[in-house]
Amino acid sequence: MISKEHLFELFTETRVATEIICAPLEIEDYVVQPVVDVSPPKWHLGHTTWFFEEFVLKKYDSNYQLFDDHCAFVFNSYYESVGEKVVRTDRGNLSRPTVAWVYEYRTCVTKAMQGLFLGSQNFSEELLQVIEIGCHHEKQHQELLLTDIKYILGNNPLLPAYNDDFQEYPVQEFEQEWITVPEGVYEIGHSSTSFCYDNELGRHKTYLNKFEISNKLVTNAEYLEFMEAGGYQDVLLWHAEGWDWVTSNKINSPSYWHKTKKGWQYYTFQGLKKITPEAPLTHISYYEAFAFAQWKGMRLPSEFEWEIAQQQFEWGSRWEWTESAYSPYPNYKKADGALGEYNGKFMVNQKVLRGGSVATSTKHTRATYRNFFHPNLRWQFTGIRLAK
Amino acid sequence: MISKEHLFELFTETRVATEIICAPLEIEDYVVQPVVDVSPPKWHLGHTTWFFEEFVLKKYDSNYQLFDDHCAFVFNSYYESVGEKVVRTDRGNLSRPTVAWVYEYRTCVTKAMQGLFLGSQNFSEELLQVIEIGCHHEKQHQELLLTDIKYILGNNPLLPAYNDDFQEYPVQEFEQEWITVPEGVYEIGHSSTSFCYDNELGRHKTYLNKFEISNKLVTNAEYLEFMEAGGYQDVLLWHAEGWDWVTSNKINSPSYWHKTKKGWQYYTFQGLKKITPEAPLTHISYYEAFAFAQWKGMRLPSEFEWEIAQQQFEWGSRWEWTESAYSPYPNYKKADGALGEYNGKFMVNQKVLRGGSVATSTKHTRATYRNFFHPNLRWQFTGIRLAK
Amino acid sequence: MISKEHLFELFTETRVATEIICAPLEIEDYVVQPVVDVSPPKWHLGHTTWFFEEFVLKKYDSNYQLFDDHCAFVFNSYYESVGEKVVRTDRGNLSRPTVAWVYEYRTCVTKAMQGLFLGSQNFSEELLQVIEIGCHHEKQHQELLLTDIKYILGNNPLLPAYNDDFQEYPVQEFEQEWITVPEGVYEIGHSSTSFCYDNELGRHKTYLNKFEISNKLVTNAEYLEFMEAGGYQDVLLWHAEGWDWVTSNKINSPSYWHKTKKGWQYYTFQGLKKITPEAPLTHISYYEAFAFAQWKGMRLPSEFEWEIAQQQFEWGSRWEWTESAYSPYPNYKKADGALGEYNGKFMVNQKVLRGGSVATSTKHTRATYRNFFHPNLRWQFTGIRLAK
Amino acid sequence: MISKEHLFELFTETRVATEIICAPLEIEDYVVQPVVDVSPPKWHLGHTTWFFEEFVLKKYDSNYQLFDDHCAFVFNSYYESVGEKVVRTDRGNLSRPTVAWVYEYRTCVTKAMQGLFLGSQNFSEELLQVIEIGCHHEKQHQELLLTDIKYILGNNPLLPAYNDDFQEYPVQEFEQEWITVPEGVYEIGHSSTSFCYDNELGRHKTYLNKFEISNKLVTNAEYLEFMEAGGYQDVLLWHAEGWDWVTSNKINSPSYWHKTKKGWQYYTFQGLKKITPEAPLTHISYYEAFAFAQWKGMRLPSEFEWEIAQQQFEWGSRWEWTESAYSPYPNYKKADGALGEYNGKFMVNQKVLRGGSVATSTKHTRATYRNFFHPNLRWQFTGIRLAK
């Protein structure tokens, strides 16, 4: 269990980091929601704050005065059991509360939390736990903030830059090799006493057949070959639902790619740029990852294969699609009440992604971390690692 | 034809008035589009500016430098023949250009226009005409700005106020009476040489049967009677499409009305308020206007009846639904090219409204003015005047 | 008022005619509903029968036993005030009752009606009226049966023929001329004592400006010119809603037209055939009629112009789109109760068509008849007559 | 590999069985498609026939004349790589080809197949294989025929019976007990040389933790307890997508259940009947299965647990939802070409069901059989077996 002191550090660092991400934004950028999966940045700021107000201050700080009655209604996201909320598709329709107001709300809650930390009160295990979850919850939203900002700016006809130095395409400077893992019984799941989500727990054995996995992520150059070979036109490479997705959305390249007179370019946080062939591919759906693997005559790893093999390769720049559906581990137990809605209720129709990405917050990933998204989504920094 | 001097006055007054309407807004309020018919205020600011740039400066000012290449794409609204444009439903997804940028754009174009006026150039009739249309076009958008702002704030869970003094519910301090108009041949349409839209022209004769029309608009109190008598539940009062609209949208009161513990209240520019029974009803659809008239055993006037009778009653606080569909007058001629898209292309599936409203810009209505909206819309200041 | 004897003749002729229309069908053809506006033929058979059971036998024949409790639920169409009904889009989902059952139901009701006629009872005016409406109601459904059958077969990939002799394209063997009608006050509406619908009543004066109207319907050849001149690609010819309709449905020809290796062909009741250039165009929407007139520099007549001029030209092979929206005449009064739902409740968002068509039942049209459809529909035998 | 003689028997028995299922139908019942997942019975008859024509006769019988050019277009289902096809939602819009025609088509193809069998030709392994797949394919459609017929009749307002003797609710006459399976490495997948689908192959090891599984399926009585305890109203029992499904479809009971004055009844092949409390529950979605298990504090088994434990309990009356997503086994290889579309392309967003049902064709299931459906579907005879 984390100590009160370390938790205070974690809390402070986390709250600041969120605001640093938003620093380059114009006020207008905080407001819009161009697609349902993307939330307005001001909503992220408010929602991560509401979490501490709702689950910590209301319960553990008897002196705390609610900042405003509307917060719960406006900033609750998916906790159905906590009461009414703004429907998700309406988040981008709300001009109020203003950005300035949201920052005040943040400051107020951050200060109240600091007060709680600095008070003489001993923190119960339960209290330590819920604050720790709140910090990791906010770190998750930091990554979403970055990807949502990229969506907001990258789908604007002006294609404005976000900042000068965020590097999305770190080159992998080593040769492609195949790592072989022998068959046998392996252990899966979180084991140490450090923080993890409930969905990583229930460490258990699994049997793996012998497999090989690449030490290197698929590059833009490799994916361009697939495109030029007609990969998007060959129905036999795709799942039935993937094919429907490709045809009804007229998909013919990764997200953010633009075919220009100067060849393929992509939108980055610095604006439109020429594609770097050797950089790891990103912004592709599971359907595209699968079709690419089919075309190569290979496959995606399962999440267990990935977890066992990961010590032998570098990872962390892309969330890597696995073949595994997001399901509970044996003996998985949902937490009671509202916090139990955190992970378990999404365990259907989603695919597990492993690794982490250039947008992942510090200390917010680990070898056992199970990220998950619907198979058609691609605004995250997703990527492909092949197995066979 | 308007003189250059009067036009300069009109232009100056119009440009300033638009900005005064926006003065109470927060930056965030300029950005959102909570429903397709409502445009973000910054879009109105840009679009009315783009009109002068596209149709005046590009053509008549050889020194003019385009402010930015993206304007046409972002701020064109419906002129299909002028080129590609942002689809209407996407207007609220654009955080850029920023509000500050739009104001700069306005200033730049206003100054260039002033330069044109102050130059020694004589203005051709064509040039006078297109600028005059541009001013009236902007006045139309002033009314839309007000109704869109009301929608944006009035559908926000915080129900914020807009300003302190805008009065939406001016009381009619006189008794209800019936004005009788004898049957006969009457003349309809614009006749003077002052400004009007093309859809008012082609002054022509029409035959009216004897009819009676009320000197007073229907009040909130009268409409409440209809509601309490079960008007929203009696299918026989409604058009088939009206009934579908009522049931699928669960409509049971005018727009902006809230049933609270203290009884019926409505959202106004000053926030939530108790309903004034004697004030003229507003924010109802044509379907509701028709059903109310059915329930009273009366009907709505035709637009011709309204135009002939209007000298005998006060009007101007509500756009009054008429029974008339929006169609061309005999001998109506669409203007050539893009400006021809202004009115004619909407002449199907819309109903004519006559009068004007508390939100109508000064000098922007007249007895022959033909406003038009789809029968289900109610975010304008619409109202009911009965005939029989 | 029609006499009991004439009404018996009308009733007998009408009931037989409906069944003759269905004689060439396979059982399967009676069941399907390929689009919401088209009803399964067995539904028409049942619905026209239900009308007599519900509005005549239940009320005027004390000995009548309901054929089956489900009839009202299955065969009520739009009389919201008469009780629950199968939603319109579900009609094609019902395999039961079977076609044989529906024919039994028809026979049973026809016989009971004959018993009523042959009984000694004097028919009240009210009874004569409701039966007469029932007959005209069934004649309306005879036309719908033909157009729905054409839709069902003409949208089947096998393009099967319906019968050998139904001629849809009668050639107009005379030269095109312009008929001039002088300006003045004219009378509009039904005047004789013979049958008409309530929407034709309230004969009243109208003022018409001088106009010219063609003695001839627009031909396939003329419309092909429009198509070849790019009419479907020129946005300036179309209403805004028409343009949306063209682009979102990828419309580029009248309904039932196929571009084949042998040139343009159309589906007819005898299967696919070469287009007859001189035959009158049909199966076009109001939007297309309007765009064609725009392209010609002319316009569509109003329904009043049509009614006044019609004695001077031949009509009856096409329902002719007019510029008039479907609205109540002055002094129009809806009938009380369920029969009042017949016409009045559709008086919004529809366009009036005048004339009649090759599919119109005998004695089912007249110079004052007001047909009406939404502007996008084209499965009826619609056509164009130009005015200027 | 199956012998030619046994295959002939299998083929003959299969073709006859399909037609026996359809014998009680009215012609009208063959035509309709009340919901997209349900196909018209005549489509099943044609599609299973087309399979033999397309994949056997066209390739292996040089004398075979295509029955009709339209078959491929009308009766191809999902083989995207074989050419154009009627879109799935349109199947119920086609009155032609008629039922009589489809039976002729069946007879013609069955005879040609019999000719092939009775000829002197030796059958290659490939030929034996494709015919065997064709038979099993038709057996799958036999089950779909039964469930589609139930849907067509059971959603008709007349609730007609199908036949007198099909028993959907066989009672489990034994006590509920928990079977314990020890942890360890187990083998999964098909091993014998008899027929199986490609998705069962790649027999491989898996590691199972110790678990318990019920010998008995959940009964109607147990599910009624869940309903009466408010299971459908408690958001915490449901997946997020399950909750959306419940609320937007207003689900409050299994499919085919009706709350009547006499209490809960359900539609069966013999019409509406009182619920048998002790019979195994059916027609529930995966979402409902999961929520029920949550409410019990238990869970659904994984497909591997089911396969290992199944020798110790009776199964075969319900397709049992498992917690496992439908994914490829290690070393799964899609067949080449069109037949490769059979199973692999559905391996996303579906859940595995194990067992078999009262509607499953003889010889069409086995312990390794992997059925799969989207988690919201319930027109199959699905059921629940609990694990913990």
Automatic annotation (TrEMBL), chains A, B, C, D:
Domain Sulfatase-modifying factor enzyme-like: 176-310, 316-388
Pfam families with a match to the protein in the record: FGE-sulfatase
Signal sequence segment: none
NCBIfam families named among the record's database cross-references: egtB_TIGR03440
Name of the molecule in the record: Ergothioneine biosynthesis protein EgtB
Species of the source: Gillisia lutea
Lineage: Bacteria, Pseudomonadati, Bacteroidota, Flavobacteriia, Flavobacteriales
Encoding gene per record: egtB
